[in-house]
Write a structure and sequence with these properties.
This protein is an alpha+beta fold and 301 residues long. It has 2 domains: 5-108; 170-286, no CATH class. The chain has helices spanning 12-16, 100-104, 110-120, 141-144, 148-156, 172-183, 186-192, 203-208, 222-225, 240-247, 269-272; strands at residues 5-7, 19-24, 27-34, 37-43, 48-52, 55-57, 63-68, 71-75, 77-80, 85-88, 105-107, 121-122, 125-126, 129-130, 136-137, 275-278, 283-286. It has a 5-stranded antiparallel sheet. Strands 2-3-4-5 form a 4-stranded antiparallel sheet. A two-stranded antiparallel ribbon has the order 9-10.
């Protein structure tokens, strides 16, 4: 979670790819990096519009944000490693630009851009308003642990200071709602009516739909499988011990156990949490709705 946004002087993706280009809907897009500045240019063949990329949202895949005439815009094309370069930004596939400004990108609403900076940075939002002068890219301790900054300051002065609340004490449901502040809660997805494969990236919602999610069992919570302070584990076998905590042999603690899998006891998530391609994202997401999957089954909402 340490990197959610890159600033102009430290854009690793664009440093690694100093020249990117593509064409879409009769417009040509170019991104060139020179002297520490990445410039986004859209052209219709006769005219062009160029803007410096102020922010890159994302880690491997990246969507660009810049301001134009005092408003924030999301780039109409984004960088996708699996696409080998630029492609139309997810959600904008049906956009048919009528001019250079519309071809450049989509103007974001005030609430949307506050939400974006609030989840992808630290200190970028205060009391519901943008505070970009104090923004730090990525998530610092304070982002999740309220009072962590004051605690660290007190310790640096040799004082005890009040320790932030231990999030590990939250129930599975409360953890899901806490992480869902950015990753979307079950309630948020239902209110948004985000149905179909588009909701595969909203892990708290998907996990809550699992038959084994009880809400009061910490063995199946976000932090039971993921350490937010460490690099994401991408090896399927790395989660076997989490699955076997419920589906293994009965434990001496008397914890409720579920039926063991009759097929295998290794790489459980490779079958029970299938990879789903998010339309328009050029990316695979792990579906956190744990279930028995049969070939040809439709995507469950």
């Amino acid at each position: 979670m340490g990197i959610g946004i890159e600033l102009a002087d430290n854009q690793a993706v664009l440093k690694a790819h100093p020249h990117l280009s593509t064409e879409s809907n009769g417009y040509k897009y170019d991104i060139q990096r020179k002297d520490g500045v990445s410039t986004y240019t859209v052209s219709d063949g006769a005219r062009s519009l160029s803007l410096p990329i102020r922010y890159g949202f994302g880690i491997s895949s990246q969507t660009f944000v810049f301001d134009y005439n005092g408003h924030f815009y999301e780039s109409l094309v984004s960088y996708y490693p699996n696409a080998g370069g630029l492609a139309v930004t997810m959600g904008s596939e049906r956009v048919r630009p009528r001019n250079l400004v519309e071809a450049m990108g989509r103007e974001t609403s005030a609430d949307e851009i506050v939400s974006c900076f609030g989840c992808h940075s630290s200190g970028g939002v205060s009391q519901g308003k943008l505070t970009l002068d104090s923004m730090q890219p990525g998530l610092t301790c304070e982002h999740c642990h309220a009072g962590a900054g004051a605690h660290q300051e007190a310790l640096s002065q040799g004082k005890p200071g009040a320790a932030p609340k231990k999030l590990g004490e939250l129930s599975a449901e409360d953890t899901s709602n806490f992480c869902g502040t950015c990753h979307r809660t079950w309630d948020a997805v239902v209110r948004m009516k985000t149905w179909g494969q588009l909701n595969v990236r909203f892990q708290p919602y998907r996990l809550a739909n699992s038959k084994c999610f009880l809400g009061n069992d910490r063995r199946i919570s976000c932090t039971a499988c993921h350490n937010p302070h460490d690099t994401l584990v991408r090896d399927d076998a790395g989660y076997d011990h989490n699955c076997l905590a419920c589906h293994g042999k009965a434990s001496a603690s008397g914890a409720l156990m579920q039926k063991p899998c009759p097929v295998a006891k290794a790489k459980c998530v490779s079958c029970h949490m299938p990879k789903v391609e998010l339309p328009g994202s050029h990316s695979l997401f792990t579906d956190h709705q744990i279930r028995i999957v049969h070939a040809g089954d439709p995507y469950p909402n």
